[in-house]
Amino acid sequence: MSKIPPEQEWFLQADYDLHTAKAMLRSKRYIYAVFLCHLALEKALKGLVAASTGEPPPRTHNLILLVKLAKPNLNHEQLTFLATLNTASIATRYPQELAQALKQYDRKMTKSYIKSTEEVIKCLRQDPRLKQ
After folding, report:
1. pLDDT in tens, 94-126
2. For 95, phi and psi rounded to 5 degrees?
3. Average pLDDT score over residue span 90-95
4. Is residue 59 part of a domain?
5. How far is CA 26 from CA 11, 21, 22, 75, 118, in A?
6. Is residue 130 part of a domain?
7. Which domain holds residue 100?
8. What is the DSSP letter of 47?
9. pTM confidence score
10. Domain count, the chain
11. What is the rounded CA–CA span in Å between residue 35 and residue 104?
12. Cα→Cα distances 12→9, 18, 85, 90, Å
């Protein structure tokens, strides 16, 4: 039985989480879809950290910290999205009022988050430090 490299395992899990985010979108569970977008990007960034450092990534949910460690080649729009999602994940993990969170994360916004998540993960996968 062959063991896959840690960075590939992180990306497999990121794909699984992104697929689940899409399922949550279809079932109108928008808060969970946004949460899973964050989780998918967190895992993809951790895969890049593992690939670039040869060490296990830190146990953190902070996308900004992971970007600093991974040093991915992302454009300004992608970095801005990561910063936005980094803050959004707090509200999706600990909503003070469900009705307000449901109003904030509607179908249109959630679809946009999923699309941006797909684009960032696609970009991260193209990093030359990843074993192809």
Report:
1. 767 778 888 889 999 999 999 999 999 999 999
2. -70, 125
3. 76
4. yes
5. 23, 9, 6, 29, 16
6. no
7. 6-125
8. H
9. 0.94
10. 1
11. 13
12. 5, 10, 21, 24
